[in-house]
Design goal:
This protein is mostly helical and 75 residues long. It is built from four helices and no strands. The protein has one domain. Helix content is 67%, strand content 0%. The chain is elongated and about 60 Å long.
Length: 75
Amino acid sequence: MNSNMHEQEYAEMARPLESLPTEMELLTQWGFNAEEIASLLWLRQWYQNGGSDRAAIVRHLEFLRLLVISGELEL
C-alpha cells in the first residue's frame, strides 16, 4: 500500500473542523449563486426525507409489472 497516501489521509482527518469549508462556501467557490445553493440544499433535504410521494406508487407498479412478466398475474 502507498504509505504516502495514508499519511495524506491522516493529515486531512487531523485538521481542525474550523478549517473545513462549509457547504455554502464550497458551492460558492464552485460558482453557484445564492438561489442555486438554496435550491440544491432544499432538494437534498427533500430527497433525504423521502423524496417524491409518488415513490410508493412507482414501487407498487414495478411489483405488478414483475408479476405480469413472471406470469403470476394476467392482465
